[in-house]
Amino acid sequence: MSVPQLRRQNEEVHLNVLDGLPADHEAAVGVWRAANIARLLPPSVERVARIWEKLTDPGACLVIGHLDASRDVMAMALAEPGCAQDGAGAVIAGYGHVSMVFVHPDMWGRGVGRQLLQGLHERASERGWSRTTLWTRASNARALDACTKARDTERQATRPHLATVAPSSS
User: Fold this and answer.
1) Closest Cα partner for 130 from 138, 121, 139?
2) pLDDT in tens, the chain (170 residues)
3) Among 87, 111, 124, 141, which one has the highest count of C-beta atoms within 10 angstroms of its own C-beta?
């Protein structure tokens, strides 16, 4: 009898990235909540309500990720139409803004964020968004690393929709 081999914590896994449907919203919020709690940033009631608004916005592009062996949602990302004036102005044609990328803490360090961003960028291109941007806290090393790797992968593939990683100071 063979003994199953446990995966190492940082071994890459294959993520199936799918369009997020309304039936996936609860699971997407669960991933978002778990990741924030693991980062010691428990969400407020107001923030949870704002996440639900973003998920149900018809202009948003939601993707979810699950592993081959499971239909459990392990990651979620959302892009919105990009707007002028740091998001307060008019929608800019051909431009999207990645406002959420969250991976369940059990999957951290396994290449899931990079795969999720690749899937999100593919869908952004299908919507006619030739450019996407993403802002994160300068202190969020995990996000900066995932975005940098995704951007480098996009450059290697010579796709026009590079992620612009611009850390914010908050």
Assistant:
1) 121
2) 333 344 456 678 889 999 999 999 999 999 999 999 999 999 999 999 999 999 999 999 999 999 876 789 999 999 999 988 878 889 999 999 999 999 999 999 888 998 999 999 999 999 999 988 877 666 667 666 766 665 554 443 333 343 444 444 44
3) 124
State whether the Cα torsion 123-129-131-133 is positive or negative. Answer: negative
Q: Rounded to an integer, what distance in angstroms lies between the CA atom of residue 25 and that of residue 22?
A: 5
- pTM value surpassing 0.85: no
Alpha-helical runs (H) found in the chain: 25-38, 45-56, 112-126, 141-156
Is there a domain that residue 4 lies in? Answer: no
Per the document, the length of the chain is 170
| CATH number assigned to the domain comprising residue 110 | 3.40.630.30
Contact predicate 116/103, CB 8 Å: yes
